[in-house]
Amino acid sequence: MSERTEVPWPRADLDPVRRLRVLAAAIPGAAVTEGLIDAPYARVAALLADLEGEFGQVVTDLHRMRLVRRSGERVELLARSRYGMRARLRGVQRPGWCWLQSRFLLVGVAAAEDAGGTRVAFTGGVRVPGRAALVPLGVRREGRRAVARLGTLV
Prior knowledge:
This protein is an alpha+beta fold and 154 residues long. It has helices at residues 16-25, 41-49, 55-58, 139-153; strands spanning 33-37, 62-71, 74-81, 86-94, 97-101, 105-114, 117-127, 134-135.
């Protein structure tokens, strides 16, 4: 009998911004907007982690959010848009990372340390019922606005 030697499985560690790019690339219609914020990572990450407060000032389509449940990294929120629409968002939140989705909505935000400050990325949009796709209308424009708003808040 020969002894089996286990070959280690390759592993790639991605920072949150690269992880967001990979996930968005798998969703038809998704667009990622990135920017460099001239602020320390800790400040940017703290602002993005405040789902019931400052997060809504960055991603203004989510006018109000209320945390309903948290279990480790898993979160569930009730959100209201600035137009009055409601959504129950479920997802994962960890330092520098937030991925939330409902039946009709997707929001992804990431931040990573960078030599010039903090690199941030946003994706999101309206989901097409029954399909793994987003309606791409206004996604890039809203992403650019979110990056600009974040830069003024930190």
